[in-house]
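Hi P.,

Sorry for the delay on this. The queue was packed all week, but I finally got your sequence through. Input first:
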Amino acid sequence: MSIILNKKEGMEYRRFGKTEKYLSAITLGGMRFVHGWDDPRDEIPNDTFEQCLNTVNMALDAGINHIETAWGYRKSETVYGKVLNEELFIPRNSYHLMTKGSPLTADGMYEMVENQLRALQTDYLDFYGWHGVNTEDIFQQSCKTGGAVEALLKLKEEGVTKHVGFSTHGPTKVIVQAINTDLFDFVNLHYYYFNQQNLPAVQAAETKDMGVFIISP
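Then the structure:
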């Protein structure tokens, strides 16, 4: 069993599929910070910073060890980078960091990851999700030979992205297709008590020993 980072009594930890990482059952997401969607993305208002600081402190105190964000969440990556590294000085090896992005070309993917590393003030990402495999066309474009996902896998070989997955709000058929490519270590999808239509995708992920991350349960 892998070492559980930031382990605290009262928090449940679960094996995240073949990544062999044990993640807290609750993740700290980064989508909803106040002013988070405002431009410019790299300018952080005081109230955004304070909200992120307070939230990160509470999350770590509760035993959360998985912090998740995305390029599409605008200020989120930058404010996390500042709070974790400039304010709290949290050791990078004491939590798991996930971000996401959705360029459709390899060059665009490399450029985005470079920008994300700079914003998050880190030199590696524990988990990287291709953001939004929502249609058949996007699936085909992102996963094609020489495309964006292939670029992420090359970055994985270099140790920059430790584990590659995808997020989706798409139909179950497309999700299962993406799972069956064997390109991915994990999937972010919708599946909970009142929305069980993606059960076939969850089952397909299980056969591949992929980590399953539930979006907005």
